[in-house]
Amino acid sequence: MQVQINDIKRNWDFRSDTVTKPTTGMMAAMLNAPVGDSVFGEDPTVLELESRVAKLCGKEAALFCASSTMGNQLAIRAHLHSPPESILCHAKSHIFQYESGGASLLSQAMMLPVTPSNSINLTAKDVEDNLILDNSFCHKAPTKLVALENTFSGVVMPLEDMQQIAALAHGHGIPVHLDGSRLWNASAATGISIADYVKDMDSVNLCLSKGMGCPVGALLVGSTAFIDKARHFRKVFGGGWRQAGILAAAGLYAIDNIWPTMKHSHQQARRLADGMTRMGFTLVLPVETNMVLLALDAEHKPACEKLIDMLKTEGVILGLVYEGSLRLVVHHQIDDTCIDLVLSTASKLGLSSN
Ligand SMILES: Cc1ncc(COP(=O)(O)O)c(C=O)c1O
């Protein structure tokens, strides 16, 4: 039987990098993947992906999960032991804001959101000021996990901050989990290896279905004992899967073929940001990887809304209002023609930079 694969010709959708669709090459890799029963530990492609990503992180083991939400929630469940417990995290982190209150449901843990003093990333001082160490008064839930996120809204968390926070937390016997859903982007942008980024982290979650372009999947990485525990909970949560090699094959393909294209996506985001600011739009966060967040205040909102409408007629989708800003996310299925089109359309709006 001949299988026809329809190639993705155009995916001019800036709402998120989660909109990326499998390419012909990725689909071919998936079709040809050797598979087995992954719950029995017998799927060779899943095993290959887990071992490759564990090695990439310089850690002992990895667990292929359905999504980043699952990876993060399994990490929380596997790190914690018995309530009352709390997890210190960035107040705008995905783990706190966008995982449906999972920590309270699945791990009976309280999230302690902290607003960074520099308004972007947590520093060791922010963490130190908010740790709950002394429970002698019994009103509080002691900090039993610190959760970081890199990149955060496209901004790279500096390695030194991660190292200082880990040293502080470890000094109190507290493990650190990294939501590294877009750590691929951080590494591509800075040239710092994934292994260097996660050296001091106790666990990390890496997503495959964002800029990496896979249909589903994430990898939770850590020590063998930690991953064994997480694998147990993955089964409890209904996430033990069988011939998952067809999905793992997409991940292996992405590491070799999509990850190397991220640098170009970052250059495109930079070009977009520079052009838009020259035309009078305002950035709400620095553009360091693939995200451009534009101000949607009273001055800029009409122009942003007009831009969304005008581009819609050209087949370009914009429109994710994120934390009060218009978020444009560049991914490997946005080409240079599309960036040109957004810039030329924006230039017709008459916003002035002075
Ligand atoms: C930083 C971060 N972490 C975790 C997730 C969760 O990913 P998923 O929706 O695939 O579970 C997202 C999703 O956008 C995210 O941006």
The hetero compounds bound to this protein are:
pyridoxal-5'-phosphate
Strand content: 5-15%
Major β-sheet strand ordering: 1-7-6-5-4-2-3
Distance between the termini: 63 Å
CATH superfamily of the largest domain: Type I PLP-dependent aspartate aminotransferase-like (Major domain)
The low-confidence parts are none
Briefly note the structural class of the backbone. alpha/beta
- Counting DSSP H or I runs of 4 or more residues, the number of helices is 14
Average of the residue pLDDT scores: 95
What is the CATH first-level class name of the largest domain?
Alpha Beta
Give the count of structural domains.
2
Coarse shape: globular
List how many beta strands DSSP finds.
10
Elements, N to C (H/E)? HHEHEHHEHEHEHHEEHHHEHEEH
Q: Major sheet, described briefly?
A: 7 strands, mixed
Looking at the overall shape, the CATH architecture of the largest domain is 3-Layer(aba) Sandwich
Helix content: 40-55%
What Rg do the Cα atoms give?
21 Å
CATH-defined topology of the largest domain: Aspartate Aminotransferase, domain 2
